[in-house]
Amino acid sequence: MINKELLMKYGAELVCYEKDDFVFEEGMPAEFFYQIVSGQIKLNTFEKDDKEFIYSIRTRRQSFGEPTLFLGVDYLCNAIAMEKSFLYVLPSEAFFLMLKENHHISLKVHKSVSHRLYFKGIMLPDITTQDSERRVMTLLNYLKANWASEANETKLFTVDLTRQQIGDMTGLRVETVIRTIKKLKSDNKLRIIKGKIVL
Question: Looking at the keywords, is NAD present (predicted)?
């Protein structure tokens, strides 16, 4: 996470997005760097039949939008607030100037982008497999590895996603996700506490 003083030094503004607000839409030119102060943002697309595919969910202390800034291309997906969210929004020219003048921040941003590419590399083989348990557990284990220190200081990690969101991120129907999670629970690969998946 880039500290707020540095972001504000380069002209970032704190912007509030209400639930279901679009931060940006698929096809828009990439013009800003975004860092989440609070709330959750999902990166998604909608198919012709209105079926949603969620690429990722970004949460507090995470950023998004960098790859399209580096490539100078239009957004390939939407960014939508899942709840009331506050974001630091920094124009692209200021973002690149900040990276040029602060090499340690540049390394941090590149590491963050690399993490996301790594996740896509992990998920790609499993998205094409018919094994729903493998798809779901790959996603859950990745979330635990990357969100646990932020979300929970204990050894248990609570997955803050609905069954529908898990389906949208793995390409599975929600009914399949529900059946798969029940099977994983019976195999003692996860627990359900107050309706939440816990690893």
Answer: no
Neighbour-count burial of 17, counting CB atoms closer than 10 A to its CB (0-12 exposed, 13-18 middle, 19+ buried) = buried
Its pTM stands at: 0.74
DSSP result, 146-161: HHHHHH-SSS--EE--
Lookup result for tokens 């790594």: 118
Structure tokens that stand for 5 in this block: 């003083």
In DSSP terms, 57 is beta-bridged to 42
Q: Check for a shared fold between 4-118 and 129-198.
A: no
Distance in angstroms (rounded) separating the CA atoms of residues 138 and 162 = 16
The superfamily CATH assigns to domain 4-118 is Jelly Rolls (2.60.120.10)
The top-level CATH class assigned to 129-198 is: mainly alpha
Per-residue pLDDT of 105-150, as tens digits, reads 999 898 888 877 777 776 666 666 778 998 899 889 888 877 665 4
Burial of residue 35 (number of CB atoms within 10 Å: 0-12, 13-18, 19+)? buried
Both structure tokens of 19? 């639930």
Instruction: Give the span between the Cα atoms of 157 and 152, in whole angstroms.
Output: 6
Q: Are 105 and 99 in contact (CB under 8 A)?
A: yes
